[in-house]
Amino acid sequence: MSTTTALPQRRAPMQRNITVDSVPSTSPSSAAGSPNESPVASASSTSLSSLGSVEDFQQGPKQQQQLVDTYGNEFKLPDYTIKDIRDAIPKHCFERSGLRGLSYVARDVALMAGTFYLFNTYCTPANVPSYALRAALWTGYTFLQGLFGTGLWVLAHECGHQSFSPSKTLNDTVGWFAHSALLVPYFSWKISHGKHHKATGNMERDMVFLPRTREEHASRMGYVLHEMHELMEETPLYTATMLIGQQLIGWPWYLLGNVTGHDQHERQAEGKGKGRKNGNGSVNHFLPSSPLYERKDEKLILLSDLGLLITGSILAFVGKNFGWWNLTVWYIFPYLWVN
To answer: Does residue 333 lie in a domain region?
Structure first.
């Protein structure tokens, strides 16, 4: 049997509709099965073939459609409100305690300091002669510090949401110190992250994780990218490449270029977005002139930059006096785990 490496002939994506008048399937709903069972045949699909072409989309719906989930089961919009959800949560879950919050900070800092002391005191050539074993132990150190650093990162995140304590001053002070120590511009990210929560799911105003539009996804280039992703997404090389890329440049790229965020900066009310586009260096979390922020925020952006400058100076001092490789193991590798 002969084989070929030729790409399959490209076909235009077709639209698959479910109408109100469609005959319901007699197959049992996959939603009622166990997690180990395969989903039943579905009129819905997560592949690109379930999307209409750009022309179909521009012409508008041709028939009344009902919502279905990815298994083809009918989906109905929930009729409960945000207030109903909040009322269902026990009241004590909304109570904030500065003392309890500070105890969490002290716990994480103590764990990080204790881990640093133990490894630098006992994981030495004199105590662990085997280089391979010592390298394995220090690898474990970077992972542990990454876990504790993530705990500190999350606490600073809660400070930004004002859920750390009832005091805004305490929240912002703790958040600024904690995030600055982890090379996060506290106020800059707090502001953009707050806007993200206000516009989550909005295709034009969300600040991060903005999906492609239907036209972009069904375009010729979108189709090619989709097919390539379908072909390679489960291969080890592709997975490793995406993981390494995300760990090394994903977070810094977002801070520096607003990657995955909206690009509608021309709409900025104060006119700061004129001529600004993601990726050209003018839309980031470090410049007070960035269209991500209003003029009233500019002093806070500078304060965030000051925190990063202080941390960067300390890291440079440590690297110069104790060795750059030591700095990499002590801080840089754990920093990547935090990311």
So the answer is: yes
Total domains in the chain come to 2
Find, among 44, 36, 37, 40, the residue nearest to 28 by Cα.
40
Decide: residue 63, CB within 10 A, 0-12 exposed, 13-18 middle, 19+ buried. exposed
Its pTM stands at: 0.73
Q: Is residue 332 part of a domain?
A: yes
Q: Tell me the C-alpha distance between 160 and 172, whole Å.
A: 7
Residue 86 lies in a domain: no
Q: What angle do CA 274, 187, 174 make, to 5 degrees?
A: 180
Three-state SS at 262: coil
Helix (H) or strand (E) holding 154: helix 131-160
Task: Supply the range of the domain harboring residue 63.
Answer: 40-77
3-class DSSP state for residue 185? Answer: coil
The answer to whether position 7 is within a domain reads no
| Exposed/middle/buried for residue 164 (C-beta within 10 Å: 0-12, 13-18, 19+) | buried
Q: From CA 177, how far away is CA 308, in angstroms rounded?
A: 10
Cα–Cα dist 50/42, whole Å: 11
Half-sphere exposure at residue 127, Cβ-oriented, CA atoms within 13 angstroms: 9
**Rounded alpha-carbon distances, angstroms, from residue 6 to 78, 189, 238:** 47, 47, 21
**Model confidence pLDDT, tens digit, residues 169-217:** 999 999 999 999 999 999 999 999 999 998 887 877 888 887 777 777 6
d(CA 9, CA 223): 12
